[in-house]
């Protein structure tokens, strides 16, 4: 039985009250590929809309914090920390965003990490779409998670 459906097959939010609070950590990543002009403008910090990567980092953090407002069955969480890394991938004219979220809580933070990555990448797209409308956002994935009943998950 799916945990977000009750006995009558109606949607429900999972009851986490019986669960123990544990340290829960999730890391997710995603990539945005673009043309060389857009990549260089971001890298050199010369976008007319301002500092693209710094804005994307703030957007990723905001995305983490707003996850329960965007994904219907996610619980609002008291976030301990959000760390966002940006990796330049010059061989592909791309950037990789990595978001790590930590809480002490009764439910996992995978959705928060994935939402943070998605919002951060969409922010990059928004800020340089005038230069390259053909950008591709891809490979959004959970890298690892720890804590809770299901324990550890490591993609690689």
UniProtKB/TrEMBL annotation:
Residues 13-148 form the Molybdopterin cofactor biosynthesis C (MoaC) domain. The keyword Lyase applies. Substrate binds at residues 73-75, 111-112. One of its GO terms (molecular function) is cyclic pyranopterin monophosphate synthase activity. Gene3D superfamilies: Molybdopterin cofactor biosynthesis C (MoaC) domain. Catalyzes the conversion of (8S)-3',8-cyclo-7,8-dihydroguanosine 5'-triphosphate to cyclic pyranopterin monophosphate (cPMP). NCBIfam families: moaC (TIGR00581), PRK09364.1 (NF006870). PANTHER family: CYCLIC PYRANOPTERIN MONOPHOSPHATE SYNTHASE, MOLYBDOPTERIN COFACTOR SYNTHESIS PROTEIN A. Belongs to the MoaC family. This is Cyclic pyranopterin monophosphate synthase. It comes from Campylobacter portucalensis.
